[in-house]
């Protein structure tokens, strides 16, 4: 779905009437913005101005806005909520020289520019642009045939919009109102869909992850860390969870190749409130984990298209490359420490010795992002189904303590020590009830190790999100994650790693 200079993507649509034209304007409004150029082409009377008017009204947020044709004024400027919009009609100019007299450069700077009869501008148009051409078919005066072509950087946007429209149409959600929802720290995006009848669903946009540069063994970071690179794992694990009678979203439709899915909307009621974690809801979330961890779960699950998905192992290489994020990103950018190659090697080797027992333990499904932002409370359901799980595409075969630590040492919300201990005891009682030989001491050791591993990884990830991705909001969680790391490093199993932190990153160790 990515684009390179000179690349194009085309999309042909048959619009039945003016309402369909307005719906197309809503779609285009979702992927254009400041600095973009949209050229509108076609003969007189084919609907260029009607489309432009609908697009302007959608972006400005005023469905009754007067947006006359700029045939005589040549340029019409509107103030959008986030950027200005310039609607131009170049039919009456004789060539690109007249654009200078119109004050073209000043008017269009940092604006979304809609241009009819753009061919009059000659070669002055940028290579990256969106062209929408209109034609009237011989069979109907109301219908329109529309050809949308994205040039350069617009190619990927057109391909994405086309994929969204096609999955909505094939799943019976065409014409539904779309409302953008906040995305997450990944490349995924979400929209809430609502039909005129009130039915709701979630549109998930999860394009295939481009493979990054090789970092070790000829493999990328995501390959070594066992991160999902397309939507297939999400679909497969979601089906597998539902087969266990758990509340993963039902999938109404999916485009496995391009990464689009229409999902059941489980709502927005969480397992926390303004005061923090809701103990009873966290307890049910642990009931779900104890249920899964007490079962013999398959490593191969069906995707639903006649193929199967092999759940990857959370092996030693994956555990280690994650902790290296602290050395790569947190230490230099937040900790103010330039680790030498020897300091780094010692850090990794200590973790290798510590994590070996974790990697060799009997595995289960490790959902990996099992914490408050990804858990929905479904009060109308019964038993374990009251906890909706919405993020599991990075599921691996790993130690059961990982997801327990993910929940009880939540990076985004404070879990009081007393609550953590009581809920950990609750989980242990459930496991003992199902298997008398459940070893709580061994589990507590693994819980501390994986809690420290997860906190170490998150410190690195949040530092990377700030430094590389321009997302400083994640830094607000660093004090909380640091407290978790300190607590876990106090366990006897991690004494050598604690000493390394005292020597190299002392602020991460309590009392150092």
Q: CATH H-level name of the largest domain... which superfamily?
A: Aminoglycoside phosphotransferase (APH), C-terminal lobe
Instruction: Catalogue the unreliable spans.
Output: 1-5
Q: How many discrete structural domains?
A: 2
- Tell me about the biggest sheet? 7 strands, mixed
Overview features:
512 residues, alpha+beta, Rossmann fold, Aminoglycoside 3'-phosphotransferase, Chain: A, domain 2, 2 domains, 5-stranded antiparallel β-sheet
Q: Would you write up a description of this structure?
A:
- With 512 residues, the chain is of the alpha+beta class.
- It is 38% helix and 18% strand.
- The chain has 2 domains: 163 residues, Rossmann fold; 242 residues, Aminoglycoside phosphotransferase (APH), C-terminal lobe (Aminoglycoside 3'-phosphotransferase, Chain: A, domain 2).
- The protein has a 7-stranded mixed sheet with strand order 1-7-6-2-5-4-3. A 5-stranded antiparallel sheet has the order 8-9-10-12-11, with helices on both faces.
- Helix 8 packs antiparallel against helix 11.
- The longest helix is centred in the last third of the chain and has 28 residues.
Task: Give a summary of the structure in a few sentences.
This protein has 512 residues and is an alpha+beta fold. The chain has 15 helices and 20 strands. It folds into 2 domains: 163 residues, Rossmann fold; 242 residues, Aminoglycoside phosphotransferase (APH), C-terminal lobe (Aminoglycoside 3'-phosphotransferase, Chain: A, domain 2), CATH 3.90.1200.
């Amino acid at each position: 779905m990515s684009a390179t200079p000179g690349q194009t993507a085309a999309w042909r649509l048959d619009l039945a009437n003016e309402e369909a034209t307005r719906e197309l304007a809503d779609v285009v409004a979702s992927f254009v913005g400041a600095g973009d150029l949209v050229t509108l082409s076609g003969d007189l009377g084919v609907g260029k101005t009607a489309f432009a008017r609908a697009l302007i009204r959608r972006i400005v947020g005023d469905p009754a806005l007067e947006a006359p044709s700029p045939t005589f004024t040549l340029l019409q400027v509107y103030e959008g909520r986030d950027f200005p919009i310039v609607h131009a009609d170049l039919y009456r100019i004789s060539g690109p020289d007249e654009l200078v007299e119109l004050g073209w450069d000043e008017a269009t700077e940092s604006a979304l520019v809609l241009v009819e009869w753009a061919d009059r501008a000659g070669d002055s148009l940028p290579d990256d642009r969106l062209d929408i051409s209109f034609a009237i078919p011989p069979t109907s005066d109301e219908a329109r045939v529309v050809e949308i072509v994205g040039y350069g950087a617009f190619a990927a946007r057109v391909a994405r919009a086309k994929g969204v429209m096609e999955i909505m149409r094939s799943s019976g959600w065409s014409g539904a109102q779309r409302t953008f929802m906040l995305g997450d720290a990944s490349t995924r995006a979400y929209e809430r869909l609502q039909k005129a009848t009130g039915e709701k669903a979630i549109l998930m946009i999860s394009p295939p992850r481009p493979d990054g540069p090789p970092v070790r063994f000829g493999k990328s970071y995501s390959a070594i860390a066992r991160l999902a690179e397309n939507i297939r794992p999400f679909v497969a694990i979601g089906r597998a969870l539902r087969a266990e009678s758990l509340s993963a979203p039902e999938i109404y439709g999916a485009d496995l190749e391009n990464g689009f899915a229409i999902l059941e909307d489980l709502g927005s009621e969480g397992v926390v409130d303004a005061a923090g974690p809701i103990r009873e809801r966290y307890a049910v979330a642990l009931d779900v984990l104890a249920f899964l961890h007490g079962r013999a779960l398959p490593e191969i699950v069906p995707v639903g298209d006649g193929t199967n998905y092999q759940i990857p192992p959370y092996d030693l290489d994956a555990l280690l490359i994650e902790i290296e994020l602290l050395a790569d990103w947190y230490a230099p950018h937040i900790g103010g420490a330039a680790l030498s190659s020897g300091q780094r090697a010692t850090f990794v080797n200590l973790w290798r010795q510590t994590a070996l027992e974790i990697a060799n333990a009997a595995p289960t499904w490790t959902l990996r992002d099992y914490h408050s932002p990804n858990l929905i409370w479904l009060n109308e359901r019964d038993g374990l189904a009251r906890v909706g799980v919405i993020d599991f595409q990075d599921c691996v075969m790993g130690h059961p303590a990982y997801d327990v630590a993910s929940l009880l040492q939540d990076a985004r919300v404070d879990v009081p020590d007393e609550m953590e201990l009581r809920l950990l005891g609750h989980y242990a009682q459930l496991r003992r009830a199902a298997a008398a030989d459940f070893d709580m001491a061994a589990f507590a050791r693994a819980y501390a190790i994986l809690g420290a591993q997860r906190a170490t990884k998150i410190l690195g990830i949040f530092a990377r999100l700030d430094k590389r991705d321009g997302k400083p909001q994640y830094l607000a969680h660093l004090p909380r994650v640091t407290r978790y790391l300190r607590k876990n490093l106090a366990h006897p199993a991690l004494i050598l790693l604690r000493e390394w932190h005292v020597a190299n990153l002392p602020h991460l160790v309590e009392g150092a």
